[in-house]
Specification:
By secondary structure, the chain is an alpha+beta fold. It folds into 2 domains: 20-127, Immunoglobulin-like; 150-204, no CATH class. 31% of the residues lie in helices and 31% in strands. It has helices spanning 2-18, 57-60, 150-178, 192-204, and strands at 21-27, 31-33, 38-46, 50-52, 65-69, 73-77, 80-90, 95-99, 103-108, 115-118, 122-127. The strands form 3 sheets. Strands 1, 3, 5, 6 and 7 form a 5-stranded antiparallel β-sheet that branches. It has a 3-stranded mixed β-sheet with strand order 2-11-8, with no helix packed on it. A 3-stranded antiparallel β-sheet has the order 4-9-10, with no helix packed on it. The chain is rod-shaped, with a radius of gyration of 49 Å.
């Protein structure tokens, strides 16, 4: 009888020890498109005398691309402590991925011996963007049409014509200067009385 009681006490003690920590892993959904962020969460509920060791999630999940890890959230639920670990992964090809059981190491009380509990596996589906082959390929955005402003076109045309005229006159001036410039003929103007004296002298001769 004493032996049975002793075994019963051991059973309840072991069961209480085993229930001092619970681990549950989830993702925000089970279906993703290629390149989507996959939010993976590990939620650990444990007694106050339990200490969680570092969880090596990044090195353990080889089938997904690691993006980032968020700070640990620590809260409480009754007499228990709740720790939430959030990770972000991604996948760049379509496939079905199972995140395996991950070991969570912990210590109870002042014990130096480490104990281990495992998360549950999580399966997700990564799909490519559906494409309708019968539908014409369209631009992501409609082509941008620039409205015509006839006044602006007329203004630019007048500016171009003015530049052509100015250029023509500058060219003619440069060419004329290169050829020696404008020839000027000097005209000598004689006073009328001198002209009369000159003719008088010519008559005397």
């Amino acid at each position: 009888m004493v032996k049975k009681v002793f075994l019963l006490i051991l059973f309840f003690a072991f069961n209480s020890y085993a229930q001092s920590i619970e681990v549950f892993a989830t993702t925000d959904t089970t279906d993703y498109l290629i390149g989507d962020y996959i939010k993976y969460r590990i939620e650990i509920t444990h007694a106050e005398n339990v200490r969680i060791d570092t969880i090596l999630v990044r090195d353990s999940v080889k089938t997904l691309e690691f993006i980032s890890r968020k700070p640990v959230q620590i809260g409480s639920k009754g007499d228990e402590v709740v720790e939430i670990y959030d990770y972000i992964f991604s996948k760049y090809d379509s496939t079905t991925v199972t995140i395996p059981e991950l070991p969570v190491k912990y210590y109870v009380g002042d014990e130096k011996e480490v104990s281990t509990i495992y998360t549950n596996p999580v399966t997700i589906n990564v799909k490519s963007l559906p494409v309708n082959p019968q539908k014409d390929i369209q631009d992501v955005k409609a082509p941008f049409k620039i409205p015509f402003d006839w006044w602006m076109i007329l203004l630019f045309a007048l500016i171009i014509i003015a530049l052509i005229v100015i250029g023509y006159f500058l060219y003619k001036k440069y060419k004329l200067k290169k050829e020696g410039g404008v020839k000027t003929v000097k005209r000598i103007i004689v006073a009328p009385h001198k002209e009369a004296l000159k003719k008088l002298y010519e008559l005397e001769d």
